[in-house]
Design brief:
By secondary structure, the chain is mostly helical. The protein contains twelve helices and three strands; from the N terminus they run βαββααααααααααα. It has a three-stranded antiparallel β-sheet with strand order 1-3-2. Strand 2 and strand 3 form a beta hairpin. The longest helix has 23 residues. The chain is elongated and about 70 Å long.
Length: 286
């Protein structure tokens, strides 16, 4: 008699429920169960399936993570009788819960700091905020390390609402994937290395008058792209179309078609940092 075996662990409960509903709709016997860590805290949701259906369910999961918005998944959730629905506390609390569930503490802290700096700059302090946070790298090592935060803080400063909205959205989505799947350690490493190296590179190309999380965003894009390709099923993925769009945007920044100044060097260095770290981490795991 076949028994249920673990198929995959999914960090977001809503995502797991939709996938389980779909498997049930195509005739698979499955079960969803909360996974617990050593401290008995919930650490994602494990999907179980029959051993004889394991290969089929794995194939279905590959399809699901690469295109989770296909109509067939939403249709199966609807047919299941509304497994995914708002709780009695209303849309606002559900949205907050989903927002917090997507990302870990470090991702959320950087997200909040970016918006805090933006509001403080354009609502209260103006240029004083930029002068406090802008990059500084002096030939005098003692002077540079008298204000060491300046090596990293340009990543927190943004010049427009579209600028910060674009960057923090991708940071929350992709940085959140990394932190949820691999832990805070790796997203902290990616942020620190990408912010430092992309800021240094941009400084030598254009001087200190730049800012934005874009270099770090391209680092998480590069990491998720490579690591997700090498490790399918880890909950880290980015569709080929999105990768193509981000690479096109990167290349466009090096042309004369852009009506604004773009920190192209920071973008490129960030992308290489993320890709390189993904390759390094993959080799260590193997």
């Amino acid at each position: 008699m076949s028994q249920l075996v673990p198929l995959v662990n999914i960090q977001q409960k809503t995502v797991a429920i939709i996938f389980v509903d779909y498997l049930k709709s195509i005739g698979c016997e499955v079960k969803l169960q909360a996974a617990k860590d050593d401290n008995n805290h919930i650490d994602g949701w494990t999907v179980y399936c029959l051993e004889e259906d394991l290969a089929r369910c794995k194939s279905e999961f590959e399809d699901y993570i690469h295109n989770p918005h296909q109509a067939k998944y939403q249709q199966s959730a609807w047919q299941s009788g509304g497994s995914v629905k708002l709780n009695n506390s209303g849309f606002g609390k559900q949205f907050k819960a989903d927002f917090l569930a997507q990302a870990g503490p470090f991702t959320l802290i950087i997200f909040a700091l970016c918006w805090l700096v933006y509001v403080a700059t354009f609502g209260y302090f103006g240029d004083d905020s930029f002068n406090l946070l802008k990059f500084n790298l002096s030939g005098d090592i003692q002077q540079t390390f008298a204000q060491p935060w300046r090596l990293f803080t340009p990543a927190l400063f943004h010049f427009s609402i579209l600028h910060i909205a674009f960057n923090t959205m991708w940071w929350w989505q992709l940085g959140g994937q990394i932190e949820k799947a691999l832990g805070s350690k790796h997203i902290v490493i990616i942020f620190v290395i990408a912010a430092l190296l992309s800021n240094v590179a941009q400084f030598y190309m254009s001087g200190p008058n730049f800012g934005g999380l874009s270099g770090v965003v391209y680092a998480v894009v590069g990491f998720v792209w490579i690591f997700g390709h090498q490790n399918p099923g880890k909950g880290i993925f980015l569709s080929t179309s999105i990768v193509g769009f981000m690479l096109f945007w990167l290349l466009l920044g090096f042309t004369e078609f852009m009506p604004i100044n773009v920190a192209n060097t920071a973008h490129l260095v960030g992308l290489l940092v993320g890709m390189g770290y993904a390759v390094l981490l993959g080799k260590q795991r193997k």
